[in-house]
Design a protein that fits this description.
The protein is globular and about 65 Å long. With 306 residues, it is an alpha/beta fold. Helix 4 runs antiparallel to helix 8, helix 5 packs parallel to helix 8 and helix 7 packs antiparallel against helix 8. 42% of the residues are buried. The longest helix is centred in the last third of the chain and has 21 residues. It has a six-stranded mixed β-sheet, with helices on both faces. A five-stranded mixed β-sheet has the order 12-11-10-13-14, with helices on both faces. The chain has a domain of 148 residues: 2-keto-3-deoxy-galactonokinase, substrate binding domain (Nucleotidyltransferase, domain 5), CATH 3.30.420. It has ten helices and 14 strands.
Length: 306
């Protein structure tokens, strides 16, 4: 067996991204179905996808994060309560054997969020770990992370540990409204952008007039009918409205330390939309690619303990 190689995977609900790593770096990659698509057959799916690697290198260690560790996945892993350090996340790996492979699945995190409610994440903890491994300044002081997605996570770090976090269903709400409500009428095949319509949605979502999201959503439709806007405009306006409300609402509780940027961990296109929203609030940000963060986090999980 190759003693220097291992397999690392970010296995979410809708996507699997597998990496073949050697000497602490990625040398090959492939993609596969999300955990919800394999219907309890995670082991068989992983072995089939990685068979060419195993034929060349033998039964390699496997490090996984994401929904693969949920009740819907391969092996349910407990949530690690916050505050949580990188060392605690590595220590929380659930390990077992599968067809000669030593498999390790990352734990999720749990906390009581700033609204006093229970909150959870699974998969994002590995991106946080990767960001901390790649950006050493995150280990010092009070830092705010933003991980946009279907369930966006806003994370407070204090001296290198995850203190607590807040989830916002911004992405899933956008997808639901465009597919299953009148607000998405005529938007098939269209994608939102961060142009003038998005900027208008941001500004409207951040206005301090006592209006909440249910009061504002229908403007996506009414402005099209009364102001001559098209479906593409409405889709970007809706995106800006939701992201604006998310950022303004969250940052009223999570205020970054003076002079420190909010670190956005995301796909670059989505990350730029959140950066625009933060700029509207007078805040600076920096973008760290989400896939790069996941890769760095998986490499950190596989690294020998210091």
């Amino acid at each position: 067996m190759d003693q220097t190689s291992f397999i690392a995977g970010d296995w979410g609900a809708h996507r699997l991204r597998l990496l073949l790593c050697r000497d602490g770096r990625m040398v090959d990659s492939l993609t596969g179905p999300g955990i919800t698509a394999v219907a309890g057959g995670a082991k068989a799916a992983l072995l089939a996808l990685t068979a060419p690697w195993s034929q060349r290198h033998g039964a390699l260690p496997v490090y996984l994060c994401g929904m693969v560790g949920s009740g819907l996945g391969w092996r349910e892993t407990p949530y690690l309560p916050c505050p949580a350090t990188p060392a605690a996340i590595r220590h929380g790996l659930v390990r077992f054997m599968a067809a000669g492979h030593a498999v390790a699945i990352a734990p999720g995190l749990s906390c009581t969020n700033p609204l006093g409610a229970p909150d959870i994440m699974r998969g994002e903890e590995t991106r946080i770990l990767g960001a901390m491994a790649s950006l050493p300044d995150l280990a010092h002081g009070r830092q705010i992370l933003c991980l946009p997605g279907p369930h966006s996570k806003w994370v407070l770090l204090k001296d290198g540990q995850v203190t607590h976090f807040q989830t916002a269903m911004t992405g899933e709400l956008f997808a639901t409204l465009r597919r299953h409500s009148i607000l998405g009428q005529g938007t098939e095949g269209l994608e939102p952008d961060n142009g003038p319509a998005f900027q208008a949605g941001l500004a409207r979502g951040m206005e301090e007039q006592g209006a909440t999201l249910p009061h504002l959503l229908f403007e996506t439709r009414s402005r099209q009918l009364r102001e001559g806007r098209g479906p593409a405009w409405g889709l970007s306006f809706l995106s800006g409205l939701l992201i604006g409300q998310d950022c303004a609402g969250t940052l009223s509780r999570y205020r970054p330390a003076p002079g420190l940027p909010v670190t956005i961990i995301a796909d670059p296109a989505l990350g730029r939309c959140f950066a625009e929203a933060l700029a509207h609030l007078g805040l600076t940000s920096r973008l760290f690619d989400g896939d790069a963060a996941a890769t760095a986090g998986l490499l950190a999980l596989a690294a020998p303990s210091p």
